[in-house]
Amino acid sequence: MKGWDAHDRGILRLPSGRLVRGRGLRYPLDPAAPTPSYGVYLLGGRPPEVPWASRWLRWPDFRLPADHGEAREVLTEAWERSAGERVEIACGGGKGRTGTALACLAVLDGVPADSAVAYVREHYDRRAVETPWQRRYVRRF
Question: How many degrees, rounded to 5, is the angle at CA 62 between CA 18 and CA 131?
Fold first, then answer.
């Protein structure tokens, strides 16, 4: 399976070279865009069905994951799969929860926890990780 194109919208290149796509589910997926092979959906309620492998992580808007242990497990699996698969991380808007999860992947990839939010803001979206408790969550991840 061909991976993501590093120049496509929403792609974050981690220091190891792994590529992960962040996305807001409120915005329709471009029909010409490649589909993921694995998705992690960070929502307060069940996400819509998708034709690829996926996990739902209960994570209400502007909050933190409902189960921190499950979040670590799901995000670790996403990071591991990103070595050879097209992994997508998505929430409603693609900024707060998605940015927080991407920053956690950056930590798993070797970015110091106290620099991970800045890394994601520089390489993904300058408004990623919206709340103080989301920033604190990344520092403690």
Answer: 75
Q: Where are the alpha helices (DSSP H) in 30-81?
A: 68-81
Q: Average of pLDDT values for 113-134?
A: 98
CA 126 distance to own-chain centroid: 15
Say what the pLDDT of residue 130 is: 96
Q: How far apart are CA 87 and CA 64, in angstroms?
A: 21
> What is the sign, positive or negative, of the torsion defined by CA atoms of 28, 33, 34, 36?
negative
d(CA 39, CA 70): 15
The pTM for the full model equals: 0.97
Provide the b/e sequence for 3-35 (b: ≥16 CB within 10 Å): bbeeeeebbbebeeebbbbbbebeeeeeeeebe
> What does the longest C-alpha to C-alpha distance in the chain come to?
38
pLDDT of residue 30: 87
75 falls in which pLDDT band (50, 70, 90)? very high
